[in-house]
């Protein structure tokens, strides 16, 4: 009798594993289809987004965000006539911040570099996540601002954890929750994604609202145009030599 009960429990446990795996697989398959397909995203070699960051009532900062495979990223934004740059060439993350009195490019501090380089993946972490060293778990459904959503726990290869919420009807991401170290403090950040538009067969959000969890203030990024497979030189992602380095080279 005891042996029979143990076998029954074992059978239930074995059945439960494929069921959960199938649920995750089903959600991800629907997600891939909703955003345009895995292969279509992997075929994109470069992407450029131009838009505006809303800094306050009537105050906008234009930006240009450029990505290129394998993992290169450059962000330019203009405030009060000055243009700041953050970039990553696949090895070195650097920045040029004239607003802070800096007139020459410099390497990003480690914590900033980590947060920035995580964004260099064109297709996002959920495509080919196992090959990239990430882990994904399906946690069921949860309501997000009145919308039922599938909740995915994503453990990145560097140990950071994000929670992705996919609309239960359309399977597109509507919110991402992250915990990151910013200026020495751990902060919970919410990113709300909306205004999805089709670009070359791919579904891309054109509005991103970011805020500290529970805070009333937020920062909104509005995308005006997305271009796929634009001609981009690798050199724009590399940190220029400073005048000091040029002098030493001479």
TrEMBL record:
Q: Which UniProt keywords apply?
A: Lipoprotein, Signal
Q: Name one Pfam family in it.
A: LolA_like
Domain Uncharacterized protein TP-0789 positions = 89-238
Q: Which residues form the signal peptide?
A: 1-21
Q: What's the protein called, per UniProt?
A: Outer membrane lipoprotein-sorting protein
Q: What is the lineage of its organism?
A: Bacteria, Pseudomonadati, Gemmatimonadota, Gemmatimonadia, Candidatus Palauibacterales
């Amino acid at each position: 009798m005891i042996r029979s009960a143990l076998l029954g429990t074992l059978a239930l446990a074995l059945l439960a594993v494929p069921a959960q795996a199938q649920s995750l697989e089903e959600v991800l398959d629907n997600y891939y289809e909703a955003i345009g397909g895995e292969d279509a995203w992997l075929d994109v070699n470069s992407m450029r987004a131009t838009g505006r960051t809303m800094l306050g009532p009537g105050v906008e900062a234009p930006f240009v965000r450029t990505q290129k495979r394998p993992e290169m990223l450059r962000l330019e934004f203009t405030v009060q006539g000055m243009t700041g740059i953050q970039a990553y060439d696949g090895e070195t993350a650097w920045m040029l911040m004239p607003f802070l009195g800096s007139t020459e490019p410099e390497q990003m501090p480690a914590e900033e570099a980590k947060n920035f380089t995580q964004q260099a993946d064109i297709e996002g972490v959920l495509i080919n996540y196992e090959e990239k060293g990430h882990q994904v778990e399906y946690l069921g459904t949860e309501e997000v601002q009145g919308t039922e959503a599938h909740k995915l726990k994503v453990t990145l290869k560097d140990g950071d954890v994000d929670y992705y919420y996919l609309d239960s009807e359309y399977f597109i991401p509507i919110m991402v929750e992250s915990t990151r170290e910013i200026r020495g403090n751990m902060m919970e950040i919410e990113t709300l994604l909306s205004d999805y538009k089709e670009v070359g067969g791919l579904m891309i959000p054109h509005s991103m609202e970011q805020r500290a969890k529970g805070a009333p203030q937020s920062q909104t990024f509005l995308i005006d145009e997305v271009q796929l497979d634009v001609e981009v030189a690798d050199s724009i992602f590399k940190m220029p030599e400073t005048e000091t380095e040029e002098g030493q080279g001479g």
